[in-house]
Amino acid sequence: MSSSIRLGRMFGIPIFVHYTWFIIFVLVTLTLARGFFPNFHFLA
């Protein structure tokens, strides 16, 4: 798993995350911030 980042161990099992999940996280966050959440911002 050379293209993965090790997060740690749980019950003796190593936990890895592929680096592309960070890219997906950023894209989903930006999409929600620019498209979905502004619709719920109401000024009182």
Radius of gyration: 17 Å
| Alpha plus pi helix count | 1
Distance between the termini: 51 Å
Reading side by side through the largest sheet, how are the strands ordered?
A: 1-2
Taking pLDDT < 50 over at least 5 consecutive residues as the criterion, the unreliable ranges are none
DSSP summary, beta strand count:
2
**Share of residues in helices:** 25-40%
Average pLDDT, to the nearest integer? 86
User: What pattern of helices and strands is seen along the backbone?
Assistant: EEH
- The total domain count is 1
Structure class: alpha+beta
- Shape, please? elongated
What fraction of the residues are assigned to beta strands by DSSP? Answer: 25-35%
How is the main sheet built?
Answer: 2 strands, antiparallel
What does this structure look like?
The longest helix has 17 residues, at 20-36. A two-stranded antiparallel sheet has the order 1-2. The chain is elongated, with a radius of gyration of 17 Å. It is built from 1 helix and 2 strands. The chain has one helix at residues 20-36; strands at residues 4-10, 13-18. Strand 1 (4-10) and strand 2 form a beta hairpin. The chain is 39% helix and 30% strand. It has one domain (4-37). With 44 residues, the protein is of the alpha+beta class. The chain starts with a strand and ends in an 8-residue tail after the last helix.
